[in-house]
Amino acid sequence: MKILVMVKQVPDTATRIRVAEGNASIVTDGIKWVINPYDEFAIEEALRIKERLGGEVVVVSAGPQRVEEAIRQTLAMGADRGVHIKTDEALDSHVVAQALAAVARAENFDLILTGKQAVDDDAAQVGPLVAVFLDVPQVTVVLKLEVDAEHQRLVAERELEGSIEVVELPYPAVITAQRGLNEPRYPTLPNIMKAKKKEVRVESLQALGIVPNVKVRTVSLSEPPERPAAKILTGDPVAAAHQLVELLHAEAKVI
Amino acid sequence: MDFSLGAEEKLIRDTVRDFVEREVMPLESEVLRNEREGRPGVSPHTLKVLQRKAKDIGFWGINTPEEYGGANLGSLATALAFVELGRTFVPFQFGGYADNILYSATPEQKERYLIPTIEGSRRSCFALTEPGAGSDAGNIRMTAVKDGKSWVLNGEKIFITNGNEADFAMVFAVTDPSKGAHGGVTCFLADRDMGWRSQPIRTMGEWDPGALVFEDVRVPEENILGQEGHGFDLAMRWIGAARWAIPARAIGAAERLLGMAIEHAKSRVTFGEPIANRQAIQWMIADCAVEIDAAKWMTFKAAWMADQGLDNRHQSSMAKLYGANMANQVVDRVLQIHGGMGYTKDLPIERWYREVRLFRIFDGTDEIQRYIIARNLIKGNVRLGED
Ligand SMILES: Cc1cc2nc3c(=O)[nH]c(=O)nc-3n(C[C@H](O)[C@H](O)[C@H](O)COP(=O)(O)OP(=O)(O)OC[C@H]3O[C@@H](n4cnc5c(N)ncnc54)[C@H](O)[C@@H]3O)c2cc1C
């Protein structure tokens, strides 16, 4: 199985996000960058499939220099090599998906895995768009994945509201991972030591033949209104309960 | 000059951090409960399971040479790992470690002592200090007298870490009283079943070192570690190896404690305002942060120097002295910021308070570190402004 995993580097979810001057981007100084958590499930799944069936796991990521760190981390988890589409431009999901699809097209992958969405902009577009550009089937929000290598088919279980949908499809295909698909592993020390020596090929949009024709532009960002200080009700529990109901009704307007 | 960590070092740090957060920290309340009820914080079984988990991801023998199955990480990478392990008070260490001086053993001794220690089937202790010789360890009185093909040891050791659990001791005795520390001290590998006894010494910490008694303990001559009369050099090498490891652990503990204090200061309201708004509290927080940062770079520099093959003894002494005191200052301020809560056994602060006090005593007291540092400068071994 030759598997491509598409990962995005995002700010750690514990980061305090601040809007940068100009209101069109966030302050990136001092941010801790991590692999998008949903992409970690995709990597783990790829590694497990490789352990069962053999093959190769290639990781691709688009972004500035810092993205190499995310790729190296996947190599330390056990991925075989990486492709870094190096760009400092602010791209939209469409252009990113075009670039990722170009990398995927250049080598014939059996399976393309990624997270169901990135936790920074939550657009959930890249996986489906890549499938469209490559003209292969896709299943999103996958909780369980089985590979039938003999018949070149996949059985994927995806989460719907209140139920599970079971989908059977041929591959090559694009699968996007949901939390619960697996438990991502730790990088191992021997793999950390080897990661430095593994190949990370640097690509550019230009070399991939992509014209960054950005269609979606961030017009402005603003911080959510500050939450008012918490109100603590003290005294007689019965009176406090009455007061709470009153406040939930009159002030918070939730009941 | 470049203060950034390499990709590899960052990955090692992040992986150990993750491991500590996900596997070790969840044991914390159990550890506190066990210790309150007089049991060891983590059972030997739990420790084994954890060490095996760590071993599965290659964190085993992190500074053990590769020929013995270890990862042989450099000193800086090891220091980074120790900082992460220091973030929890759970007494956990990666497996696969053996004392540096055991590598000076003969091939037969390695089979019997070094390798089983690395594998975890035997446990060592380092027995130098005596009731009458601590800071002045060159003054030890335990005697070893040759009798046929063995040496007969008599004397007492005190405050020996792992002394109650170990099944062999690297014990230092005087073999030539006319020479003393300068060629008259020898290190012996003495199995417990050769006849020495141990007795726990209760301390303010959560683990008890042992007092070791040797009464006519016969040790075969092939159990001399290194050479006869070279024991004191071995002792100094053992002590020197751990020196920057102490401040490394202290840094992890201090960062965790300061984080707790900041959270508490933001949520604790007095006189209608969070105490974090008060300058008195802010200054404590600021002082902690400054001292932690200073300790960090002193420690990393000592470790980095070791990786460069430079003599780091002076830097290690400074890092150990400063780091040990930093931890004591930080835990004291953090306890103060927590008020009465900080003094209770519901929070781990008082436990840390008791534990870090040891940092200023063992592996060379504050005073001995200062003595070393000053002597280096006065004698001109280290010149100011030349690093
Ligand atoms: C929990 C614990 C674990 C230990 N583990 C081990 C172990 O595994 N193996 C081992 O061999 N030892 C171990 N030790 C012993 C430890 O290394 C000694 O306690 C330490 O070296 C100090 O010696 P001492 O206690 O005899 O103090 P002393 O040397 O008696 O010192 C008393 C005080 O006098 C000061 N002082 C001494 N000499 C001078 C001087 N010349 N100038 C100024 N001030 C001076 C000291 O700094 C100290 O403040 C351990 C100790 C403890 C508490």
SSE arrangement:
The complex is a heterodimer of chains A (255) and B (387).
Chain A: E1 2-6, E2 9-11, E3 33-35, H1 37-53, E4 56-63, H2 67-77, E5 81-86, H3 93-106, E6 111-115, H4 126-134, E7 138-148, E8 153-160, E9 163-170, E10 173-177, H5 189-195, E11 200-203, H6 237-250
Parallel strand pairs in A: 1-4, 1-6, 4-5, 5-11, 6-10, 7-10
Antiparallel strand pairs in A: 2-3, 7-8, 8-9
Helix pairs in contact in A: 2-5, 3-4
Chain B: H1 7-24, H2 28-36, H3 44-56, H4 75-85, H5 107-119, E1 124-127, E2 143-147, E3 150-160, E4 168-174, E5 185-191, E6 197-200, E7 210-220, E8 224-225, H6 231-242, H7 245-267, E9 269-270, E10 273-274, H8 279-307, H9 313-338, H10 340-343, H11 349-356, H12 366-379
Parallel strand pairs in B: 1-4
Antiparallel strand pairs in B: 2-3, 3-7, 4-5, 5-8, 6-7, 9-10
The structure holds flavin-adenine dinucleotide (FAD).
The site of flavin-adenine dinucleotide (FAD) has 18 residues of chain B, from strand 1, strand 3 and helix 12.
Offer a quick outline of the entry.
The complex is a heterodimer of chains A (255) and B (387). Chain A is an alpha/beta fold and 255 residues long. Chain A has helices spanning 37-53, 67-77, 93-106, 126-134, 189-195, 237-250, and strands spanning 2-6, 9-11, 33-35, 56-63, 81-86, 111-115, 138-148, 153-160, 163-170, 173-177, 200-203.
Can you tell me about this structure?
The complex is a heterodimer of chains A (255) and B (387). With 255 residues, chain A is an alpha/beta fold. Chain A folds into 2 domains: 2-203, HUPs (Rossmann fold, 3-Layer(aba) Sandwich), CATH 3.40.50.620; 225-255, no CATH class. Chain A is 28% helix and 26% strand. Chain A has 6 helices and 11 strands. Chain A has a 9-stranded mixed sheet, with helices on both faces. In chain A, strands 2-3 form a two-stranded antiparallel sheet. In chain A, a hairpin with a 2-residue loop joins strand 8 (153-160) and strand 9. The longest helix of chain A has 17 residues, at 37-53. By secondary structure, chain B is α+β, with helices and mostly antiparallel strands. Chain B folds into 3 domains: 7-97, Butyryl-Coa Dehydrogenase, subunit A, domain 1; 124-237, Butyryl-CoA Dehydrogenase, subunit A, domain 2; 243-379, Butyryl-CoA Dehydrogenase, subunit A, domain 3, CATH 1.20.140. Helices cover 47% and strands 14% of the residues of chain B. Chain B contains 12 helices and 10 strands. Chain B has a 4-stranded mixed sheet with strand order 1-4-5-8. Chain B has a 4-stranded antiparallel sheet with strand order 2-3-7-6, with no helix packed on it. Chain B is globular and about 80 Å long. The A-B interface holds A 68-69, 72-73, 76, 185-193, 195-196 and B 7-8, 10-12, 14-15, 18-19, 56-59, 62, 71, 73. The complex binds flavin-adenine dinucleotide (FAD). Flavin-adenine dinucleotide (FAD) is lined by residues 126-129, 134-135, 159-161, 203, 209, 358, 361-362, 365, 367-368, 371 of chain B.
